[in-house]
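Complex record, two chains
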Amino acid sequence: MDAMMPDKTMMDMNKMPAKMDMSKMHMDMSNMPEMMVDLNASKEELMRQIMEYDFASFDLHLYLNSHPYDERALYLFNNCVEMSKKLREAYEPIYGPLTASASGPHTPFRWIVGPWPWEPEANV
Amino acid sequence: MWIYEKRLQYPVKIKKPDARMAKYILSQYGGPDGEMAASLRYLSQRFAMPTDMAKGVLNDIGTEEMAHLEIVGSIVYQLTKDMTPKELEASDYGAFFVDHAKAIYAANAAGVPFSAAYFQSKGDPIADLTEDLAAEQKARATYDNILKMADDPDVIDPIKFLREREVVHFQRFGETLRQVEDKMREKPVFVKKPY
């Protein structure tokens, strides 16, 4: 339990911990994976983190569909979603939108600017 | 990659069952000019497109077609869900019922299963975009045929929305074709061969 509480050394700007308000939780919090993000990382590293947290949250999503009362999985799911949101907020203004709605106010419409995901330049 | 949004792009709320109409509308699910063919056509063709505009237009219209596929499936589902097997049989839905009950299956109005042969992915942007223009008109014509037979406003309303989207897509494909042609005219050869 203690190992899962936010460590003060994690509280700097670069490495933000997952929200960990566990006061109302009574599930088994042992061996909970540590979640943090590096928001000052390179483009490739930011994308790698987005893919990691999005894949984790989607895998948890599938699991939760058939285990809708699993508090532990739901807690992890919500944290992954939160991590991904932070990472997108860091990535999109600099490197371009991941969804059209994040295109921003300037023309030309940034959404259609390549490379597109199926092109090698978009994959590292 | 894709994420799913838990809503229809346009609402479907049908009160009156009508299996005969459902069978006709099912053709826009898995028929030759239906939404499944449209979506798979654009999402397959986008890989070989030469401009960012063409890639984006095919990607996004192909995505919208998936939302239309869902609307068509919802219409067919709501039109048949409260009918008994005997009622379905009396509405000419018996042959479909024996194989699929009240499920949604990708077939045309005559029950012929969906086929990828309904569309091309030629690797030639002029050929592909010209096919896409025709596809939108064929889908629009199919919705017109459905509207000629439909009399329930609950059915007519979402079908009219889908018909209107075909017209909008036709416009966007026309603009995209023009941009691709202009770009190719800048080069000595009309069509750039990939080999």
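Note: The longest helix of chain A spans residues 71-95.
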